[in-house]
Amino acid sequence: MSVRRALEADVDRLGSLSEGIQRLHAEGRPDLFRAPDREVLRAFLAEQLASGAILLISELDGAAAGYLLAEISARPANPFRQASKSLYVHHIAVDPALQRRRIGQELMDAAVAIGLAENVDAMRLDSWSFNTSAHAFFESEGFTPLNVVFERKLL
């Protein structure tokens, strides 16, 4: 297994991996998430790659096994908060058939290395309440809850 920065040539394979996680979200909250559309996901990932986002791919025996999409976010101090620089993980997905083979851990390790090289003070991510298996993984990676978002539906 290897983890590296994704290239434009990887976008089709990344789009395929993204379909699975998008499907999970669409099934968990169909009122918020759209059903996966491979071309739309592919175009989104290509745009992210072109804009300089951190896009990592994990390969196992030449096949795409997982990916991680992140960005570095720097916020200046304001009257309420200290200045901060964090690496924010927007997506992490592993092919369901390949889960529990350290692919997610390797992707996170590569993201940590990037964060350390960029002198970030923390890695952050969010996860939907229905994705409890992801919560267990994030906790095993040393993440702890930071903020709770409440929702009250009106319609």
UniProtKB/TrEMBL annotation:
Tell me the ranges covered by the N-acetyltransferase domain, including all copies. 1-155
- What GO annotations for molecular function exist for this entry? acyltransferase activity, transferring groups other than amino-acyl groups
Which SUPFAM superfamilies is this protein grouped with?
A: Acyl-CoA N-acyltransferases (Nat) (SSF55729)
UniProt cross-references to Pfam families, sorted A to Z: Acetyltransf_1
Tell me which InterPro entries the record gives. Acyl_CoA_acyltransferase, Bact_Acetyltransf, GNAT_dom
Keywords tagged on the record = Acyltransferase, Transferase
PANTHER family the UniProt entry points to: ACETYLTRANSFERASE, AMINOALKYLPHOSPHONATE N-ACETYLTRANSFERASE-RELATED-RELATED
State the protein's name: GNAT family N-acetyltransferase
